[in-house]
Amino acid sequence: MSHEVIRSTVVPIIYLVSTVFFIFGIKQLAKVKTARRGNTLAAVGMLFAIVGSLLELGVIDYRWIGGGMLVGTIIGAAFAIRVQMTAMPEMVALFNGFGGLASALVAGSVFWERVVEQSATGRIHQVLGTDSAITVMLSILIGGITFTGSIVALLKLQGNLKKGQPILLPARHFITLGLLAGSFVIGGFAVAALAADSVVLVLVLSGAALLLGILLTIPIGGADMPVVVSLLNSYSGVAASMAGFVIGNPLLIIAGAMVGAAGLILTQIMCVAMNRSLLNVLVGGFGVAEGTGGGSDEYTNVTSCGPEEAAMILENAESVIIIPGYGLAVAQAQHAVRELADLLKARGTKVTYAIHPVAGRMPGHMNVLLAEADVPYEDLLEMDVVNPEFKNTDVVIILGANDVVNPVANKDPKSPIAGMPILNAYEARSVFVVKRSLSAGYAGIKNELFEYDNTMMIFGDAKKVIQDLIAEVKDL
Amino acid sequence: MTLGPLLIGIYVFVLASFVGFEMITKVPPTLHTPLMSGANAISGITIVGAIAAATTGAPTVANLLGALAIVTATINVVGGFLVTDRMLRMFGKKKK
């Protein structure tokens, strides 16, 4: 078979097969039973895509390609195999950043080869073609934003950069929007510029994109990072799609567009769960108090108790609901929690888990953590299912969750979290709140649940407290 | 009516976006993180563009950029699929 036939017929068919694998892969990833197979299908689709692209190129020098894939595989596999389950959100952010960077680099490489190395004369839109010229600029812009945005998100998830607090520059909206508008102008000039002048413009555009990624992400607080990572995931899809326009490859356009749409939907789902608009998240600064008076933020009438007392109450409980939050992930307490639940179950107590849609730092974060500790899937109850149960529940144990159980969301229409759906933990007969201190949650507001008569605080690290509870329950 | 390559590309982009929207509407929250991670691995498809950008052995800037793109895209692809599989493996085992 001649290379021409391979290029014109075989390769497009392979790309089509790859697309079908991606579609079935994503569809199956969305169902619990088939999710793992879906991931495998998508990976097979990727293998087809790579084989197709190599066939398309014919006989070439494989040194850069082979070397690059080897290095990438070693680094990617090392990260994926060694990462702790608790650090999963950071990992997704990091990989996502690399994906965005790759798309920007592809565009940069095409630009450099066809404009600089071939010493092109004339204007860029003539050298590359208008559509390729525009998509090269968009690839660099979106890919660059995705890269630095993801790295900032990663650092914030790790608790770096002012402990993940919003960083608010003066006149930040003006600077950011100005830079974004400026980037479009520079990109437009680069498309219209003479080849000799365009290099500087493209370099400036790259710098502006990298800076934009940082500026867009730093004003957003650490707990909103899931939304940001999800949105950046959508961006990296769009960046790949733009790279597809640059090299004229429909597979990139399709796969990139699908990921772009999927990321956007997921982002929207997360915003709805927090009862906030995407704009409200992206503007940033959420939870930074703007001149609130001290008085109402002080806690009065807080009761605290030790593990011993808590164990005695647990002894008589017939039903227990555990509400995990980010504190569980930080303390890596998932295995200890499972052990406590097993102990209580062995004594005939009914134990379930209430999962708030935005608990933790990623949608489904708590599910992943608890699954790691072999908690049965059936024990994890979603908010709508579990909320009617609280009235008939003896004990609720809240582990490092705060805003998602704050009754003020239902009561005070002026509260920053007003209208956010919460877990009605306060309706249970006894509520234990395991927390390191009385410090505010992400929304930066007081949690009046801590003052309720049926609430008892157990101060300490979640894992340590649970281990103490296990010891006490064993002694009963 | 004859469509130029750019218009065909835009057609494909718009239709694929709708496919993406339709596929993701109903997902149990449990699967949000793995789905995000798996979709993220698929966005590493840009590796195909990266491969096409480093086709000669010469140490030129374009090839170096292409090679760097291959490294980063491969990290995205390999790491993304592996990490997704690790997450999903945990869901699998307690379903027995």
Overall description:
The complex is a heterodimer of chains A (476) and B (96). Helix content of chain A is 60%, strand content 7%. Chain A is built from 18 helices and 6 strands. Chain A has helices at 3-29, 35-57, 63-82, 88-117, 124-127, 130-157, 172-192, 195-217, 225-247, 250-273, 278-283, 307-315, 326-331, 334-346, 365-372, 383-386, 408-411, 462-475, and strands at residues 319-324, 350-355, 380-382, 395-399, 430-435, 455-459. Mean pLDDT of chain A is 86; it is low at 289-295. Chain B has helices at residues 5-24, 32-42, 47-52, 61-93. The longest helix of chain B has 33 residues, at 61-93. The termini of chain B are far apart. At the A-B interface, helix 1, helix 2, helix 3, helix 4 and helix 9 of A face helix 1, helix 2, helix 3 and helix 4 of B.
The greatest interface between two protein chains, and residues involved on each side, is:
A-B, 117 and 83 residues
* Record field, number of beta strands of chain B: 0
Strand order of the largest sheet of chain A: 3-2-1-4-5-6
Order of helices and strands of chain B: HHHH
Helix count from the secondary structure assignment of chain A: 18
How far apart are the termini of chain A?
78 Å
Which structural class best describes the helix and strand composition of chain A?
Answer: alpha/beta
Radius of gyration of chain B: 18 Å
